[in-house]
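Please, structure for the following, as C-alpha cells.
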Amino acid sequence: MGHTAENRANIFINKLSPIQINFLGYAGTIGTYVDYIVADKYLIPKENQKFYYEKIIYMPNCYLPHDSERKIKNENYTRKKFNLPESHFVYCCFNSAYKINPPIFNCWMRILKKTKNTVLFLLESNKISRENIINEAYKRNIDPSRIIFSSFLPYKDRFERFKFCDLFLDTFPYSAHVTANETLSSGVPILSIAGNSFQSRVSSSLLQNLGLLELIKSNIEDYENFAIDIASNPQKLQEIKKKLIKAIEETNVFNTKIYTKNLENAYKKIYENFKNNLSPENIYLN
C-alpha cells in the first residue's frame, strides 16, 4: 500500500523478508527498505531511475500482468441496458472518480461541446461524485443527459459494456492501470497523456508495447484535438481498432504464461544475487 492510508509499512521497515519487492500495490517508489520495483523500460526510463529507492526489474513488455484465461459471460447486453443512445459516439472512462480532476474534466466538457451526437460514459463511484459531476456539467453548459453512468458490475459482467464504447478518455496525471488493461484487451482504444511519473505512464506503456503510439499524447491540447477529430472520423477509428486487435493477437502484451515465465526468471536472478551476497541491481529481461 506504500504511502497510502492504513498502510503497514512498519512490517517492511523491519525487514519481514530479506528480499522485498514493490509490485502492483503502490504505483511509485516506496523507500530504502524495499529492494526492487517491477516496471518496464517505458514506465521508468533510464533518466528516471535516480528518482527510485528500489532497483528496477525491467519486464520485456508492459509490467502490468493480464488474465488471459478470463471468461466473459456474454449475457447479450444491449445499449439500452446501459442507457446508451443507439447511434451516438461513446466516449468512456471507467477510472475511479478520485482520478478525475478539474483540468481533465474541463477538457472532457470542451470535447462534448465541440462534438455532436456524442456522450460520455462514466463509472459511478458513489452518489456524491455522480451529483458533483452533474452539477459541474451544468456549470459548463453541458446537458447532463450526455453524461451516462454505469454502476459497479461483477468482474465477469463489466467487459460487456466495452462493446458499446468507441474511445476511452484516460485521466491525467493518474492514468488507468488495471482498467487500461481491461479496456485495451477488450478491443477499445485508449487516448492517454504520458507524464513523467509512474502513475501517469501505465496506460501509455500498454499503448507503447502494442504499437499504438498515435494514442499517446504529451499535452492536454493534443489529447483534446484528437478526441474531437476521431468522433467525426469513423474510418480512422476503425483503422485504430483493427490495429489494436492485430497487436493483441501478434504481441505478448496480454500473454499471461509468457509474463509469468519472465517474472519467475526475474525472481531467480534476484535470489541468485542475494545468495551470492551481492547488492540489489537493476534486472533486465529480454
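Residues 80-250 form a domain with the Rossmann fold fold (CATH 3.40.50.2000). The first helix runs from residue 9 to 13.
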